[in-house]
Amino acid sequence: QVQLKESGPGLVQPSQTLSLTCTVSGFSLTDYSVHWVRQPPGKGLEWMGGIWGNGNTNYNSALKSRLSICRDTSKSLVFLKMNSLQTEDTAIYYCTRDSNYGYTYDYWGQGVMVTVSS
Amino acid sequence: DIQMTQSPASLSASLGETVTIECLASEDIYSNLAWYQQKPGKSPQLLIYYANSLNDGVPSRFSGSGSGTQYSLKINSLQSEDVSIYFCQQNYDSPPTFGGGTKLELK
């Protein structure tokens, strides 16, 4: 069955770089795109960016200068790196699978809580 | 970016009641709208796509409608397991954007 699972540090210091990994199973990264969505505590959802089946990427312009998404298709892994973290980047970070309908997320990981604090 | 405005922000209803949540887009999104349900402490789950198509496994008491800039999610015969936050999301244009959410509680 389709599964996604995020992993990474729970605590990052301000100005440092966040590195997260999404491990997927039950589908191929060359057939579906995987996106990252974040949710600050008690708040709404923000799309961060995604990597398509052909390897192309698209980023939210608000984060584009700080964000990078890449993948290892042989290991079914998708990576997120975001630099210059600030306290407002504290959030639950989800990786999601984009269905064939385009920017419509039919499977989500459990999420990983990232706190930016010294 | 397309702005999505949900109303109400919170809603209290009784078991068995019918509830409706509204979502307004800042421009025409041509029915490219999804609804998600987020139960407490859980990830969002896709309920409806293309404004009115039910995702696999979603109970038929959920339905979506709308066109242009105005959309709604209807829940018939409210059940206790429907207590959640509901989000709309446009997938017409990048970046995809979400509404602020509607918190549904039991009265």
What is the compact description of this entry?
Chain A is an all-beta fold. Helix content of chain A is 0%, strand content 50%. Chain A is globular.
Please, could you describe this protein's structure?
The complex is a heterodimer of chains A (118) and B (107). By secondary structure, chain A is an all-beta fold. Chain A contains no helices and eleven strands. In chain A, strands 2, 4, 5, 6, 9, 10 and 11 form a seven-stranded mixed sheet that branches. The radius of gyration of chain A is 13 Å and the shape is globular. Chain B is mainly β and 107 residues long. In chain B, the strands form two sheets. In chain B, strands 2, 4, 5, 6, 9, 10 and 11 form a seven-stranded mixed sheet that branches. In chain B, strands 1-3-8-7 form a four-stranded antiparallel sheet, with no helix packed on it. Chain B is globular, with a radius of gyration of 13 Å. The termini of chain B are far apart. Classes of the chains: A mainly beta (118), B mainly beta (107). Chains A and B meet through strand 10 of A and strand 5 and strand 10 of B.
State the major sheet of chain A.
7 strands, mixed
Strand content of chain B: over 45%
> What's the count of strands of chain B?
11
Overall, the morphology of chain B is globular
Residue runs with pLDDT of under 50 for 5 or more positions of chain B: none
What is the rounded distance between the termini of chain B?
36 Å
List the helices and strands and how they pair.
The complex is a heterodimer of chains A (118) and B (107).
Chain A: E1 3-7, E2 11-12, E3 18-25, E4 34-39, E5 46-51, E6 57-59, E7 67-72, E8 77-82, E9 91-98, E10 105-108, E11 112-116
Parallel strand pairs in A: 2-11
Antiparallel strand pairs in A: 1-3, 3-8, 4-5, 4-9, 5-6, 7-8, 9-10, 9-11
Chain B: E1 4-7, E2 10-13, E3 19-25, E4 33-38, E5 45-49, E6 53-54, E7 62-67, E8 70-75, E9 84-90, E10 97-98, E11 102-106
Parallel strand pairs in B: 2-11
Antiparallel strand pairs in B: 1-3, 3-8, 4-5, 4-9, 5-6, 7-8, 9-10, 9-11
